[in-house]
Amino acid sequence: MLKTRALTLLGLILAAAASRLAPHPWNLTSVAALALFGGAAFDDRRLAFLAPLAALFLSDLALGLYPGMIFVYPSFLAVAALGLALRGRRQPLPILAASLAGSVLFFVLTNLGVWAEGRLYPHTLAGLNACFVAALPFLRNTVEGDLVYNLLLFGGFALLERRFAALREGGPLGLQPA
């Protein structure tokens, strides 16, 4: 039963990762939602972090590797850690709060990285401010993408759990509350 759950979760994550390969506006992707969902849904903490990162890496191989990966990947690990806090609390309000927190966390960490590299902005407070201001249009797309994909992943899996007992934590015997 737990195998069925893990395989279903992996399938959802791979499907969402594949959506990254379709044309889309900058930062309007499924990746942060994958990390948040993975952290919240996988019973195995290793899979909670590895599955979303593997999906991201596979799509990066298809799209092309980039220098900013050094900031992007740790950002998604942090979002997956937020997902761990959702375990046992997968209700709409905590998911919404975690989704917004994940968007902001990604925005702050990746833009601090861009600023720290020093290629585009000087290492001054004005440079840091300019970096964040220039990135604001991407933040909107990040928030929108995270909200939509979190709704699809969390909502879709909740519907599947209701329909198929084998997907619930603890399996069909109800060893743990669904």
Write a structural description.
The chain has 178 residues and is mainly alpha-helical. It has one domain (2-170). Helices cover 73% and strands 0% of the residues. The protein contains 6 helices and no strands. The longest helix is centred in the last third of the chain and has 39 residues, at 125-163. The chain is elongated. Residues 171-178 have low confidence and may be disordered.
Number of helical segments with 4 or more residues: 6
Q: Name the shape in a single word.
A: elongated
The helical percent reads over 70%
Mean pLDDT: 88
Q: Evaluate the radius of gyration.
A: 17 Å
Q: What is the strand content? A: under 5%
Q: What's the SSE pattern?
A: HHHHHH
Backbone structural class: mainly alpha
Number of domains: 1
For the termini, the CA-CA separation is: 14 Å
Oligomer: single chain
Number of strands: 0
Largest sheet: none
* Low-confidence runs of at least 5 consecutive residues: 171-178
